[in-house]
Records
---
Amino acid sequence: MKTFAIVNQQPGSGKTTTAVNLAAALASAGGKTLLVDLDPAAVATRAVGRQAACAASHLITAEAEPADTLVETHTPGLKLIPAGRSLAAAEYHVTGLPGSQFMLAEQLTGLAGEFDFCAIDCPPTLGPLTINAMVAAEQVVIPIPHADTDFHALDALIDIVHTVKTRFSPCTVRIRGLLRVCFENKTQPGKAAQRKIARDYKPLLLNTIIHKTPALADAAGHAVCVLEHSPRSKGAAEYKALAREMTDGNEL
Ligand SMILES: Nc1ncnc2c1ncn2[C@@H]1O[C@H](COP(=O)(O)OP(=O)(O)O)[C@@H](O)[C@H]1O
Ligand SMILES: [Mg+2]
């Protein structure tokens, strides 16, 4: 199972949109895919048409068998571990326990044989849930919104991924890439940020760019992924392209 953590401590940076639609695109291409909602706000859970639940908190506290936390979604091949408010309490519960950073990684190992891919939607913090996601993941994807990138926060995040890798052996996480999202060709403030991104972060950039598309926001409002809501939209095509890039162009 190849696991991607979608991380950015800034709220509204496109994590959930990316986790949900990347997971759906991987599933639609034939990969058995698990979407883990690790945000107590449960936005990803609702975006795939499910209700907030205790599953992710029970997973992190090991109160449930991993297989018992899975729920089906409308998208064939895509299963979900839903989140809910109890996940915030679970985060406090595990913090301070010896080895608490490994809780998610250990639990997901129990599901590795069932899935080809796992996408983890992280909360807008760099707290214990996000650290658990990084330790569990092989690769971190950092969505960066076009006109609104906080470069100090981005540098801190890049440093933290490296720290997690060196401190939490045998974790082998690496930054797979920065994903440009909500991209608008014509926005003036965004142009200066894009020049800086192209200059200072070039080796980290993913090739795929996700443009600002109403279909992506509409799909979430209708509690379905964009591939189902607007299969011919630019948003659907771009998340399919991202799925191909994440699988290195390999047929699934
Ligand atoms: N490419 C996009 N085009 C249009 N709207 C987008 C796009 N990506 C995200 N959004 C919208 O931006 C808002 C924040 O995105 P979200 O994925 O929830 O961010 P996060 O999970 O980082 O808080 C949501 O309303 C979402 O629908
Ligand atoms: Mg979110």
---
Amino acid sequence: MVECDVLLVGAGIIGLSTAYHLKSVHPELEILLVDKLGAAGQGSTAKSAAAFRCLFASRTNFALADSSAEFYRHVQDDLGFDLKLRWAGYLWFFDESGYHKMLPVLKDLSNRGFKYVEYDESELARKLDMRTDLANDEEAQMMGLGNVYKGIVIPKAGLIDVDSLVKFYETEYLRLGGKIQYNTDVKELLVEPRSPLGMPGEPYFWQDASVRGAKTNRGVIKAEKTVIAAGAWTAQLLDPLGIECFVKAKKRQIFSIKAKTEALKKLLFTKDFSAAGCLPFTILPKPSAYIRPAPEEDALWLAYADEFPRAFKIEDDPEPEENFYQYGLYQVLVKYFPQFTDCQPFSAFAGLYEINTLDGQPLVFEENGLMVAGGASGSGILKADAIGRIAAALYEGEEYASLYGGKAFKVSDLGLKNRNIEPEKLVI
Ligand SMILES: Cc1cc2nc3c(=O)[nH]c(=O)nc-3n(C[C@H](O)[C@H](O)[C@H](O)COP(=O)(O)OP(=O)(O)OC[C@H]3O[C@@H](n4cnc5c(N)ncnc54)[C@H](O)[C@@H]3O)c2cc1C
């Protein structure tokens, strides 16, 4: 049997950031981070599109995303750990009604000092060799595709190399003396009475009990505190204890197209929108399928986060679906970007969003001695640093966490009992 102060379940980006921040504040703590997989960041973290943006209208989103991005900038620029950050920006296409709906939000953001650049449809058509007006395209009309009326570029946004970010947190946590055990599958959480009486089947409902570690495929791990950062798998560990976490899994898929033709190369390496030397992360108007440039592999990744009737379903190894590309993404993309005509994916992968069904924002809470950090709902990379700091502050019993840059964030705002989340108005 292994004993430690803190057992952290899940070495995804949230578990790693939490482990690192906890160990930074408390070097004396014996922390054991475990994961059922053979290396760090191999769950949903490895499947991410690895895009980030700092422009959000809600106070919650902005605080989490901006401070995390600034920390990643600091890691790269000041600590010299190359995260391959590319400030390529986000390019958002809007149809006319979408644009007018978003205009007051954008104006408000601009009054608050946020920067964005607006492009009209003719500029976009010229710079990107794209079709912006689909009004006379019968098929596009049948599919309900929106025209591109405006494009908004958010410069403080871009791409990050997730493997490098994972390596950074893992290396630094280990350097501080933290321990990691891979291939360790938590089968069940251990619940014990605070004052054991030695009765069979303890604890009984009248006893004061708490979570004191876990049973794993490699034996029992006893811990003063157990922290679950198991991403989309969180409910599998909490449901048997009757703890509601509001996290559900939904498959998300990415298809990679090699930029083999001159037209696709031109699109991928367009220099018109930023100094990053590639296309921004580009989001179509309706439906909001996206193109994620992957210049380091001469590719463009295509994806769409579909909702109804996509099931909530936990899968260990979700598979990308050929038809999702063939009859879904391809048909939409090619209407705007004829450059993709006849393109087949060179590779594809799928992962799970860990969706918080309450409000789509991360959760950091404690119940019966068990802490939970996760539910980032598809934005875990871009908010990971802040979430790790907030989880470490909850462990400390602090009312406020100090985010990178010094901003205070009320810990209970991400909790369940006194949750305080400002709804996001700048929705993709
Ligand atoms: C296709 C796709 C695109 C995405 N794009 C972006 C993006 O552009 N930007 C962004 O910010 N986010 C994006 N995301 C979301 C982002 O990847 C996640 O929010 C983030 O990785 C979640 O991190 P996590 O640590 O909570 O979960 P995970 O990375 O899944 O980590 C959880 C870990 O827990 C382990 N685990 C689970 N159960 C157990 C158990 N019983 N015992 C031991 N270990 C266990 C798993 O093996 C896993 O390693 C995307 C996700 C997908 C799928």
---
Amino acid sequence: MELLTAINTRTSAARLREPGPSVTQLSQIIAAAERAPDHGRLRPWNFSILAGELREKFATVAALAKRAKLPHLDDAQVEVDRQKILRSPCVVVIACTLRDQSKIPDIEQIVAVGAATQNFFLAAHDLGFGVMWKTGHAAYDANVKACLSLNPKDHIIGIMHLGTRV
Ligand SMILES: Cc1cc2nc3c(=O)[nH]c(=O)nc-3n(C[C@H](O)[C@H](O)[C@H](O)COP(=O)(O)O)c2cc1C
């Protein structure tokens, strides 16, 4: 796919099914993300591929983060939110891990990870996958960050769902 075609045909995929990307394809997608412009070559990005126990833990903590902000949600709704994360063919959380010692301002590090996230999206789209870029309450929750071994001051830029577009 030509770059302009990829950009001009990119849309969010609200519904996804299996298959998601293979390990090789995911490596290609992340390698493309890491080609983003990055002031100071700090590589301030972090990619958490949610599999196995980490996915289970993330799904629970993320669903509870939403209820912490919306206390009227009952257990059934929390379970619906948990299942959204568990059912997705592939979930990758992209975060900005701020390099404190650097003279590069935080905002420039955050923007670099935003650019990496768009590269990630376009690369997955180019390989034929549907993508949904999400954040929501989970992205701003300290327990969610801790679950991914991020620092409280780090920023979750995208909770990326990938799969085959329905
Ligand atoms: C930083 C960021 C966070 C987003 N968070 C959410 C989200 O939590 N839930 C959601 O449904 N869409 C989310 N989106 C996706 C946008 O809403 C989506 O791109 C928008 O609806 C436009 O649709 P399109 O991507 O098909 O052009 C997010 C997008 C960005 C860039």
---
Amino acid sequence: MLVLQLRELSLKNYRNYDNLELYFHSDLILFIGPNAQGKTNILESVFLSCTGRSHRTPRDRELIKLGEEEALIRTRVEKELGSSEISILLNMRDKKKVLINKTPAARLGELMGHLNSVLFSPDDLKLVRDGPAERRRFMDMELSQIRPRYFYYLQQYNRILTHRNNLLKEIQGKPSLASTLPVWDYQLAEAGSYIIQQRQLFSQSLQNIAREIHSRITNHSEALTMEYKSSIPFEEGSLQEIQEQFIRELETRHKDDIARGSTGRGCHRDDIHFKINGIDVRLFGSQGQKRTTVLSLKLSELEFMYKETGEYPLLLLDDALSELDRDRQKMLLEYIGKVQTFIALTDPTQIPDVQTSSRQVFRIQSGAAYPEESLSF
Ligand SMILES: Nc1ncnc2c1ncn2[C@@H]1O[C@H](COP(=O)(O)OP(=O)(O)OP(=O)(O)O)[C@@H](O)[C@H]1O
Ligand SMILES: [Mg+2]
């Protein structure tokens, strides 16, 4: 019996669903159907219940069924210590509301940690292919789920950064305002140093796990390393040292920042570098190496969360199998049995051949889900 299980999912006016009620009693749940029927929408709603946001869009309104005012996503989860219920209410004109066990959460941050998940989709290739913003998002999502404090500091940081950038632009027209900059430097560095420190620890920890997994996937031919590259130079990485360096960096760049009207250094500029056998994957990696790197990262996320929280998260696989060769598929599927897994597929012949104690299959068609009893395996 798995420690963490999603038992119920109910959607009202979410994306292309009017009303959906699903009950899960298995370790492996498959959603099968042609394109554009609503498979990803279901996985997205589960991810939303874990993190408070969609993995596809920062705009909550897009999640509400077209023409409707409100959407409701409700999940019931079972853990070792009992069951809990998370509801998210989206409104066209209002901020989203989160209820945990029917009690309204004062802040979105309270949601973090109740239900964790790792989502894997072909889009994740962006992680190694695209610019640093994707990798920062990856770290932020991961750390926010396991450390409510991180989420809080991240929100703080972004707020302060916006203020500071606005001030920098105002100073261009009114130089005397520059005397207020140090206050913002200090506040930015205070929130930012915690973020940098956590990301640094996270990338070290993840690398230890990913190195082993990657080596296994590639039959011991590739060594994966990752390194947090901060725009703030620091050495031993204590909170105080990072904060002092952060303030120093900001101070020495006041002139540049004012001229540009934005903040040139800080954790909003940082990155992680992935290397295979010492060579940068983003710049020189083959398509297959990039894919394997992402797979290693995703599997490491699962292990990392387990290490940090003592329970495996849900695994959400969005069409992720079709992109992988047999051996890599096998590695990924080894986790089924350890974690409750939800897979979206277009092609029923792709149903993975794994041994699990139980599985459920839903056929997804035009915003409705039909349990399939008759599919043979
Ligand atoms: N806010 C919304 N209101 C109504 N319908 C929506 C909304 N957002 C998305 N849709 C519809 O949802 C469908 C897409 O759903 P989804 O992305 O889950 O498809 P899918 O089954 O994963 O398809 P694919 O196999 O192509 O990935 C589309 O028909 C789209 O028009
Ligand atoms: Mg999809």
